[in-house]
Structures are given as structure tokens and as C-alpha cells.
Fold this sequence. Notes:
This protein is an alpha+beta fold and about 260 residues long. About 35% of the residues lie in helices and about 25% in strands. The protein has an eight-stranded mixed beta sheet, sandwiched between helices. The chain has a five-stranded mixed beta sheet with strand order 12-11-13-15-14, with helices on both faces. A hairpin with a 2-residue loop joins strand 6 and strand 7. The longest helix has 21 residues, at about 5-25. The model has no long low-confidence stretch (mean pLDDT about 90).
Amino acid sequence: MHPMLNTAIKAARRAATIINRASFDVDRVQVSEKQYNDFVTEVDRAAEAAIIEVLTSAYPDHAILAEESGASKNLHDDNENVWIIDPLDGTTNFIHGFPQYCVSIALQQKGVITQAVIYDPSRNEMFTASKGGGAFLNDKRIRVTKCDKIADALIGTGFSGRDMAGLDEYMEMYKIMTQKCQGLRRPGAAALDLAYVAMGRLDGFFEKGLAPWDIAAGSLVVTEAGGIVGTFSGESDYLYKGDVLAGTPKVFGQMVNTFQAFAK
């Protein structure tokens, strides 16, 4: 295992200890609203601080891009190593006791995601990937499904409750995909949705308006599992655009064709 991946796993487990402890008494967790329907808890902040402490202790020169604390002071366009962190993807699920949330950590090196960890603490499922080294769930190799027809596919999706301006467009996409695929699911944690594509629980996924920390780790896990990730037009510059399709190779292509009118 790559030493940087091993460090990320250590950081994810440290964060998960904080999350699991809080999950036993969610009603006591302090919650604040960053903006409409966009919540942050003391658990998000504590988990993120724990992750950053582990990573920066091992690699003090590396930069950080994290959901709650933002960019570290040493983050510049020419950074060789940047850790992209979501300490608790699925915060709304977490504060309601709905067990669909995760820790997401990725390493971007010279603009390329090279290491990825997605950890689901409620199920003790650790998804990992190193560029060129394959994708794994709890150390067992995983692959996307062999699904080659969107009509046979189970598709995951998501919609940000804070972006009401995009609701009509999303509902149109939802309607179109519901008519084309075998089933559509909206669990509420994009990083886990991508991990589920990688290990075959889903055959595809689409969502608009995501942040880099929602996408970074999951994108590498999917591609290392034999899937494809791209924008709604099929391009590879999805990380900072935030509009993402993922799936088995053939399902991905069919999704691109289906959503051509929604590509930007």
C-alpha cells in the first residue's frame, strides 16, 4: 500500500472515531446553517481538524482544501500536493440519524488525483484507490458491474437542497432518467454514491453543483474500478466544474447522450 494512502486511511479512521461517538447521541450535536438547507455540525469541524492534524503531521509541506476550513495558507496554483477533504459527506443524513454518510479524502498531485479514501463509519466500509493500482473495499478488489444498457441500470443521483434555482432542471433530468433506467436512488452522500458505482451497488450516477471534496476521492475509486467519470458532455474537467456523470463504460456513454441538453 502506498504510504500516502496509508496515512489517509489513518486520518479517515481518526475522523470516524469522532463521528461514531457523536452518532450515539445525535440530538446533543450542535448544528448550524451555513446557508439555506446547508448544515454544518461540531462533528464536521472536529472530524476535519483530526484529519488535517494527521495529514499535516506526516506531510507538513502539503496543502489542504477542505469543506469547512477552506484552503490552507500554502495552497497555490503550483502546489504539487493538495489534500482534498470532506470530513462528513452527508451531514443532513447524519443529523437525522440516517446511516448514509462518510469521510472522503483525496490527494491531488500536480493536478491529478492519485490517492483516495472513502470511509463509511456506520458500516465499517473502507473504499480505497491508488492511481494505477486498482480500487478496493476493505482490501478486496472491486469492479464496476458489466451493465451495458441504461434500461437495466440502477442509477444514483443527488440534488442540493440549497440550490432551489436548479430545481426545475433537476426534476426534468429526474423524469427523463426515471423513464429510461430500471431504478433511480437519491441517498444523499455523493462520495458514497460514487463508491457504490465502483463496487457495483449502482451502475451509474449523476449530479450537478458538487464541490471538489464531494468528487475527488470517488472519481478515482470509480476509474480504478473500471468505470468512467466525466461532465455531462463527457469531458474530463469535472472536478472544479461540479457537474458529474459516472458509470460503467457503456452506461456512462448512454447517460451522456441522454443528458446532452443539460450539458454546459
